[in-house]
Design goal:
single chain, about 200 residues, mainly alpha, two-stranded antiparallel ribbon, about 65% helix
């Protein structure tokens, strides 16, 4: 029962992820998405697109990474992918959050969460790199579906999007052409400036 109680404390705590707003709007454009919604969408998309990876993947492992990768945002908040200054401090702040949150779990689960989170952050496996590609894909899709709402709000350009996200497509080369085509369309429609 002790492990069950610890898990339930954790389950209640991670509900707070629903309160962490991200920069992208949901595709209906009615409001900004939260990190819990993003994590669910990420996990589902990774599972659905897993067969398009150019290497064999343990999709269960990828889905687990997707579900936990942003839990640290409960304490650390969301860092906008194009926020250079915020990214400099991100690792330290998020590691502190991981220590607090993962310690709520029974030891075996705490170790698994640390392994998954460090693997994702370190990009050391094909699964982690594929997961990152999907994580980067979704805000691009959200922005193209909302007429570049977050891009326009922050003055983001096509060259910034390409620079920040281009290196991610390695384990998911199928995404490279798709992303290029939707970004071309966003520029043509005036939803993303070219430079």
């Amino acid at each position: 029962m002790e492990n069950f109680e610890k898990i339930m404390v954790f389950v209640k705590e991670v509900d707070r992820l629903k309160t962490v707003d991200r920069q992208c709007e949901i595709m209906s454009g009615k409001r900004r998405e939260n990190s819990a919604e993003h994590s669910w969408h990420f996990a589902l998309t990774a599972w659905l697109l897993g067969s398009y990876a150019h290497v064999d993947l343990n999709l269960n492992h990828v889905v687990k990474m997707a579900l936990i990768h942003d839990l640290v945002e409960i304490d650390a908040g969301d860092t906008f992918v194009y926020d250079e200054k915020g990214r400099e401090e991100k690792r330290e702040v998020e590691a502190k959050a991981a220590h607090r949150l993962f310690a709520l779990l029974p030891e075996e689960l705490e170790a698994e969460f640390w392994q998954l989170w460090n693997e994702y952050e370190g990009q050391v496996t094909a699964e982690a790199r594929f997961a990152q590609a999907i994580d980067r894909l979704l805000p691009i899709v959200c922005n193209t579906e909302t007429e570049g709402s977050a891009w326009r709000r922050h003055g983001i350009t096509r060259s910034q999007v390409d620079r920040r996200n281009g290196p991610c497509w390695g384990e998911a080369r199928c995404l490279e052409d798709y992303v290029a085509s939707i970004l071309d369309r966003a520029v043509a429609n005036g939803h993303l400036t070219p430079e």
